[in-house]
Every structure is written in structure tokens, then in C-alpha cells.
Amino acid sequence: MDDKRKQIIVNEIKMWKETKMIPQEYCDFLLAIYTEGNEANTRKQNGAGKSVKKQAAVSVFILALIAIAVFVIYFTELHFILQTMILTAFVGCLLFLGIHYANKEIFYPVFFVGAAIILLLLSVFLNEKVFGNHRYTLYLLLFVNCGLWLIAGKAYKLLYFTLSGFLGLVILLVSIVI
Fold first, then answer.
1. Which of 28, 46, 45, 48 is nearest to 37 (CA)?
2. Where are the membrane-spanning stretches (predicted)?
3. pLDDT at res. 49
């Protein structure tokens, strides 16, 4: 079969796939036959490029939120309540996005990591402003953070959150005893 006829058939199969006239699996199978496997490889490479771009955009967004959180805490003279509300909104936004995109194609654990970092900053900030840098309240807040990391790690099967929570608890216990 010449290339012109193959291209006509391939275009027709693609149209069937887009309009869902034939199930996806059949269209992929036919495309693999008529393109000798080249169509599937091209599609996978393009999809991987889009996924990397999405992950990079999400990572830059979260790093920007963390930078803004640090700026709000240490370099502004905003009222304590306003600073707390801004940081709480950041944590809530990241948690909402993480839960929302947990079943999607977006790299969702990065949302949880960003929320955990900002929540840790918020905890230390609250200890400083509300409790006057009292050591035992700081320990309590850090225990709560580590507990939340453990819960998130177990709930979403994120090994690094589980390990971070466990190691954080061990380090806190050692630092209290010593």
C-alpha cells in the first residue's frame, strides 16, 4: 500500500477516534498497524512534554506562594491577623488544589508539599506572636505538623510525607529528652 492511501486511512481512524465512533482501544490498535507503531510513540512523547510543562508551571506557582508567605511574615508590617489570614488562605488553596487534582493528571503531591511548608511557617509564626516563643507550645505545634504529615502520607500513599512525619516525631522526641 502506498503512503498516500495509508495517510488517508490513518486520518480516517483519527477522525473515528475523535468522534468516538469506534472504541479508543480499537483505534489505537488500527493506528499502530497502519503507522507501524510510529503514531503511538509520537503521541506519547508529545503527552510527556505537556506533562513536564504542567509540572513545571505548578512547581513555579507553589514556589511563588512560598516566597510570598516568607515575604508576608518577615518583610511586611501587616497586622498579625491579616498575615495569619493570608497564610491560612495559601494553605487552604493548596490543600483544595491538592485534593481536587489527586485523581487528575496534574502532579498533585507538590500542592501538599507547598501546603506543608507554609503551614510549618505559619505554626512557627503563630508560636512567636501568640505564645511568645514558648518552647513547649512550639513542640506541640511541631508535633501537630508531623502528625498531619503522617496522616497525609497514609491517606494519599505518599512515602516521603510518611517518612518526614515519622522522622520529625523522632527528632522532636530526641530533642525534648536531651
1. 28
2. 56-74, 80-99, 106-124, 136-152, 159-177
3. 62
HSE value, Cβ hemisphere, 13 Å, CA-based, for 140: 8
Q: What is the pLDDT of residues 133-167, one digit of tens each?
A: 899 999 999 999 999 999 989 988 889 999 999 99
Q: Are residues 29 and 56 in the same domain?
A: no
State the sign of the Cα–Cα–Cα–Cα dihedral 8, 13, 14, 19: positive
Which residue range(s) make up the domain with 29?
1-36
Q: How many CB atoms lie within 10 A of CB 58?
A: 18
In a domain, 41, yes or no: no
Nearest to 110 by CA among 174, 176, 161: 161
Specify the pLDDT at position 80. Answer: 92
79 & 157 share domain: yes
| Pair 27, 59 in one domain | no
The pTM of this model reads: 0.69
- Of 103, 122, 113, the closest CA to residue 58 belongs to 113
pLDDT of 86 reads: 94
- φ and ψ at residue 79, rounded to 5 degrees: -65, 150
pLDDT band at 39 (very low <50, low <70, confident <90, very high): low
Q: What contacts 10, CB < 8 A, 6 or more positions away? A: 31, 34, 35, 39
